């Protein structure tokens, strides 16, 4: 399922870039979470809480998200199974986007990206694999090496940094939705323990 999610995101991204500017604007407005529209017509717009997770704003945005999904997704999928993993992934993404929208209910800025869902995967990972080692590139002036950092340290630092950014940045401004990252991570920490693990 991890590879399927990556493939779908890649296909959707290249479908996006094949559109001309007016078509792309309409596509984003239709399938992204636009807080103002979500709360004005929730019944029709709630599908965007899911569809927005498959849209990305740039190749770098896509590549970064897919890298983290590949890095952390497989292990969680192995213990949950395909169906529960997909449910967990999408639920964390829905929570992330909804929290971001609640904080900026009058915003007309579209919310897109899989990062909220992936933050949920990271939240689940830190619970289930705290001592797993993450290979990390360390650059100190001219010295470059790869070190192995425990997941609890790596992800703990990441969520602390995202929380500080969420507190410092106006959520109503265009840019990275740090609050969605925090909300997705917290959702992952809360939801994973109540999901049954796969029995082989």
Features:
200 residues, Rhomboid-like fold, 10 helices, 2 strands, globular
Strand order of the largest sheet: 1-2
Count of all domains: 1
Kindly state the number of beta strands.
2
CATH superfamily: Rhomboid-like
Tell me, what's the shape? globular
Indicate the mean pLDDT. Answer: 87
Figure out the total of helices: 10
Largest sheet: 2 strands, antiparallel
What string, H for helix and E for strand, traces the elements in order? HHHHHHHHEEHH
CATH architecture: Up-down Bundle
CATH class: Mainly Alpha
- Nearest-angstrom radius of gyration? 17 Å
Low-confidence stretches: none
- Overall structural class, as computed from helix and strand content, comes to mainly alpha
Task: Determine the N-to-C terminus distance.
Answer: 17 Å
Q: Per DSSP, what share of the residues sits in E-state strands of 2 or more residues?
A: 5-15%
Task: Enter the CATH topology name.
Answer: Rhomboid-like fold
Strand and helix layout:
Layout: H1 2-17, H2 21-31, H3 35-40, H4 42-45, H5 48-51, H6 59-80, H7 82-103, H8 115-128, E1 133-140, E2 143-150, H9 151-168, H10 178-191
Antiparallel strand pairs: 1-2
Helix pairs in contact: 1-6, 6-7, 6-8, 7-8, 7-10, 8-9, 8-10, 9-10
Task: Put the structure in a nutshell.
This protein is mainly α and 200 residues long. It has ten helices and two strands; from the N terminus they run H-H-H-H-H-H-H-H-E-E-H-H.
């Amino acid at each position: 399922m991890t590879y399927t999610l990556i493939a779908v995101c890649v296909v959707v991204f290249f479908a996006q870039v094949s559109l001309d500017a007016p078509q792309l604007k309409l596509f984003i407005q239709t399938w992204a979470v636009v807080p103002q529209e979500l709360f004005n017509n929730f019944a029709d717009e709630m599908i965007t809480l899911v569809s927005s997770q498959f849209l990305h704003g740039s190749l770098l945005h896509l590549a970064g998200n897919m890298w983290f999904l590949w890095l952390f997704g497989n292990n969680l999928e192995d213990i949950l199974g395909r169906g529960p993993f997909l449910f967990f992934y999408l639920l964390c993404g829905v929570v992330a986007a909804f929290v971001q929208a609640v904080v900026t209910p009058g915003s007309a800025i579209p919310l897109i990206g899989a990062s909220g869902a992936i933050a949920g995967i990271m939240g689940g990972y830190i619970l289930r694999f705290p001592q797993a080692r993450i290979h990390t590139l360390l650059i100190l002036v001219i010295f470059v090496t790869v070190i192995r950092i425990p997941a609890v340290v790596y992800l703990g630092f990441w969520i602390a940094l995202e929380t500080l950014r969420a507190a410092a940045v106006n959520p109503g401004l265009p840019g990275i939705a740090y609050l969605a990252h925090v909300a997705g991570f917290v959702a992952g920490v809360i939801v994973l323990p109540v999901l049954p693990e796969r029995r082989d």
